[in-house]
Amino acid sequence: MEVTEAVAIDHGLKKEEFSKICELLKRTPNLTELAIFSAMWNEHCSYKSSRKHLKKMHTKGKQVIQGPGENAGVIDIGDDDAIVFKIESHNHPSFIEPYQGAATGVGGIMRDVFTMGARPIANLNSIHFGSPQHKKTRNLLRGVVKGIGGYGNCIGVPTIAGQTTFDESYNGNILVNAMTLGLVNKNKIFYSKAAGLDKPVIYVGSKTGRDGIHGASMASATFDDKIEEKKPTVQVGDPFTEKLLLEACLELMADNSIIAIQDMGAAGLTSSSVEMASKGNLGIELNLSEVPCREEKMTPYEIMLSESQERMLIVLEKGKEEHAKKIFDKWNLDFAVIGRTTNSKKIELIFDNKKVAEIPIDLLAENAPVYDRPWKKTKLPQKLKFDKDEFKSLKLSDCLKRILSNSNISDKKWIWDQYDHTVMGDTIQKPGGDAGVVRVHGTNKAVAASVDSSALYCFSHPLTGGKQIVCESYRNLISVGAKPIAITNCLNFGNPEKEKNMGEFVECVEGISEASKYLDFPVVSGNVSFYNETKDKGIKPTPTIGGVGLIPDYKQMLTMDFKTEGNLVYVIGKTDGHLDQSIFARELLNEKKGPPPTVNLFNEKNIGETLLDLSRKNLIVSCHDVSLGGILTAVSKMCIKGKKGIKINSLKGLTNKYEYFFGEDQARYIVEIPRASLKKVIEILNKYSVHFDDLGVIDGNSIKYNDDINLPIEELADAHKYWLKKYMDS
Amino acid sequence: MKSSVIIFPGSNCDRDMDVALKKFGFKNQMVWHNDQSIPKSDLIVLPGGFSYGDYLRCGSIASKSKIIKSVIDFANSGGLVLGICNGFQILTETGLLNGILQQNKFLNFICSNVFVKVKDKQNKYFKDLKKDVLELHIAHNEGNYFCSNDELKSLEDNNQIAVTYCGEDGSENETTNPNGAIKNIAGIFNNNKNVLGMMPHPERMIDKYLSGEDGSLFFKNILDNFK
Asked: How many domains does chain B fold into?
């Protein structure tokens, strides 16, 4: 086929980008070369719209071993142990084919982690669906949950936490973000930078098929009516092969045979080979006739673009081929020497003894386009003036039940019961808490992880929203007794070619950056997913933050369930009663305007450190951060989990009880304090100048507040626990 | 007491089982599925996971693997063979245990704590066990035990039903049955009661920081009965 501008546009390239390619090459590329350019220059692989802004991220820290730019980020957790982690989106494929889309999302992120030599120890996911009333939602949710479970359960890595939300802006574009944590010895980390000339390039894993061709390009475009036709671009996962690949790679990594290793993810063999050569400032020659193929008569074009799963590319020390092959034979996996490193600084492809492509590596990597797209600032909406007389018609107890059974607050047990969350025998905090916690096998340490996003806040004011999610992640880790160390982010946005969407991206990134810097909570890895848009309708900006923290002694882990009758319950942090953008305003007043709650980074840090101090001194016995739904929602969850009631004190000087109980002010926690510890707790709170309210005492089997609330915990639990199950069964 | 855990490609509870066995004092070794023979053992464990991807049917390819003949010989000579989850599925596929494990009644994978009632204590696994109801953990998609009426009658007549799903108080009914298993069956013995297959994972319940610690009782009891 002759390569023309029209063909280039069909490959997702812009007219100007095609001219630039011809200019750089000083000739017209052939079809295979064009395919390689289109794969490397699309948004998904090149970060061309986001790169300029991602540079602003705060990525350094005392415990950071590897920041963004590798397969995953790495942090030091002491004693030569390091945690490798990353979050990644698989949004577009999951909407087209929910089971395989979600499954291969999980498979892909696990490969990113074990590529670096780490054994995966925990999975998390953040999944977002359209309105519960939308006709596709139920099936998409069912498929995604089955896909995530089907892959993770089979590999045998526990899924320890997650987040699920519903919002009509996801009707045409669901979000599936998967995160994996792995454990590695910090002196045995593997990177993707090739080094040395004439080193063998090895292909291992599954055979290459015709699935997933143009997957990365598909993920770099918006959807229209014909998305069903894109099904063949979705990859098909085989978790069994991945499990074998994991064990084989870790076995080979036990010695010094590997120079560089890279998984074949988006844009398959193309991006993995180009990235390894580019990082090593080398050339690479591949003989595509040697690539193990699943189907007959595959062309170089197809081989280079296939996104078949469970494959790795390795640059090996010379002479280690036989040794490596033995390991892959043992695990029944394909192993083929398909090329070598060269000093040409080009990627050269041979097929049937003919050279079929030749492109200088720097044209694909460094010379890829970078755009400074125009963007628009979002003004802080004006604060609403609520008619407080209107509240009086609402009974507090009815409000609470409504909120607890709201789709975004209700218990998600129906989902996580389908994920194996206990395999590997180190899960000490299961899904449903503020963060999942796994022990570092064979040690006293434990690692906590949480995923968070707040699309409503980000939509209302991206800068504040960006800051808020970082703080939320920070609080969730503190709540389980972990010291927050670092984050990974998955930036899900609409079409960057629209000023509003681009502005949302820029300002969210700014907010994330500012908060992570202030809290010393650096970003070590991440991914950007643009073009989450169908027929001109984009999603609400949904940056997802995956936070990781450390508990030096796992016996100090905290959970949110109330423990002992008679213990005191305090609210730590100040409540002003911010109702704008709250679940109360939305659910009970049908009010969607107004600004999100203000984020005060000093308070977040100061109160977070206070809480850590309290938990290290064993002065509090349960803890939960106050977020969506406010104080009363948080307390109810603690009651439901602990199967205990609370008698809430008559609060003096309260301006408005609705604002107090349902306001979503930030930097707040609820803690349970044994009476014997109270004096010490108050001393510490005063030392840090932290505001606190004496909320009540754990008592009986119901929530009681004056004459307003007297609700048996069982009744609350029913409201909270069964919304999703009923929804899925109906 | 010497034990061996067989690793099939796709096994994923092999390490957990190794950790649990060693914690309670078993001298455990790992055995690769392609080996011809098993080192001298007092107990052989087939661990949970997805052996050979569970392709075809759960446990069916593993039941034809190289090592399995040694497991069958060992069982037939009276040795203790324990199959957990996928291991239970493999044991039914080999014919060492009766019946089959179908997909869960509600068609979903289930990961959850469950209570099981110990139905028979005249065997080397549960003899003198201090409790009648254990809190264990399940994680499976195909744990819905089924067998023919004749097989069921023979299981009942010979006291081969080992454990059944129940409530905390020991009540056995539909609401305490997580996967639709016939007669709430969670685990069964062979005729000689040296082979035990069960869906629940005792190895995930071995200290109080995990989902519970009734699994400890199970392992300690096997050791106590061996002495």
From this structure: 1
